[in-house]
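Re: [help] complex structure
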Amino acid sequence: DTEVTQTPKHLVMGMTNKKSLKCEQHMGHRAMYWYKQKAKKPPELMFVYSYEKLSINESVPSRFSPECPNSSLLNLHLHALQPEDSALYLCASSTRQMNTGELFFGEGSRLTVL
Amino acid sequence: ELKVEQNPLFLSMQEGKNYTIYCNYSTTSDRLYWYRQDPGKSLESLFVLLSNGAVKQEGRLMASLDTKARLSTLHITAAVHDLSATYFCAVGETSGSRLTFGEGTQLTVNP
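Output below.
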């Protein structure tokens, strides 16, 4: 099984809402990632978790809060977002934090902030 | 800071033709990846290139890596419409876990 599963696939939220994006993988990967992708642009790294510990935060605003409850799950909690945060949010996993292995991406969660 | 440049950014080609997409990067790395993305979809891994001189082929696509020139190429042979997509190269830092993506090449193959 080489799948990374993300839910929900689509999310519409207001600027005062609190919501969460979820990501799950059962490949035994110990590194998990959140990327943000705007239309017609490359993915931008947001967070990296290695062995369930946050190892990289690319200066992401605190309205995005990641959480890694266990080695298979990764969440992204959203609160007080802005319309410019609307994007495709991609979760990925890899065999090692150092990226010697390829990244496996989920299908993404398309977020619209009204 | 690692910079990755792809060219061309837009490529319109006819079915049956050959073409090459180029990926240049600015600092030493021995890990380079090619991904495909269809509109509204996620990224699909195409090739993982981990050493100088690496060449990999899958169907009509062939990727190569020259770490001395800091250059990777993605060659398309006898293009078909199904290859229409955006192709990204991504380069891993020698130390650290960041993967830097190129801007992407939007490929359209016309009948």
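Chain B has a mean pLDDT of 93.
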